[in-house]
Amino acid sequence: MSQDRSRRAFTRRRWARRWLSWRRALVGLLVLGLLGLATYAVWFSAWLRAEQVTVTGADQLSVSEVERVAAVPLDEPLARVDLGAISTRVQSLAIVKEVDVVRGWPHTVEITVVERQLFFCNCFTYCFIPTNDFNKVYSGIHLRHVNG
């Protein structure tokens, strides 16, 4: 009888060790699977894609003009949208002093614009804005630097 008990205890311990090995392997596979799914969801799937663009801070520029210049690729995964390129394109507008482009998870690209202030605008030929660059063009109007 004590031999049966010790045999059963030995068998239980052996199965427990085997199950521990299998459990570690299953947990490892589960973690790898979840990491793979998360990578797919963020970088390749349409679940987290750019669907809209929000523009704030545009007073002198129209929101549609900023969106057109930004050329945000909609229906592309949000993690793969090149925020630096969008920022550079919006910064190329003469009236834009600073721009900040961020991802608004799960479906938005947020563009915040800080505009230069116009000092004087002559409706015939020139608009004067404070800038260090001469001869910038804003909406087809020739801009000149004003020291002041």
Give your account of this protein's structure.
The chain is of the alpha/beta class and 148 residues long. The chain is 40% helix and 24% strand. The protein has helices at residues 2-43, 63-70, 83-91; strands at residues 52-56, 96-104, 108-115, 120-121, 126-129, 137-138, 141-145. A hairpin with a 2-residue loop joins strand 6 and strand 7 (141-145). The N and C termini lie far apart (104 Å).
Quick structural summary:
With 148 residues, the protein is α/β, with parallel strands linked by helices. The protein contains three helices and seven strands. The N and C termini lie far apart (104 Å).
Mean pLDDT: 82
Shape: rod-shaped
For the largest beta-sheet, the strand count, sense and barrel status come to: 4 strands, mixed
Strand content bin: 15-25%
Radius of gyration: 30 Å
Helix fraction, binned, reads 25-40%
Count of discrete alpha- or pi-helical segments spanning 4 or more residues: 3
- Sequence of strands across the biggest β-sheet: 4-5-7-6
Order of helices and strands: HEHHEEEEEE
Give the structural class: alpha/beta
Separation, N- and C-terminal Cα atoms: 104 Å
Low-pLDDT residue intervals, each spanning 5 or more residues:
137-148
The overall strand count is: 7
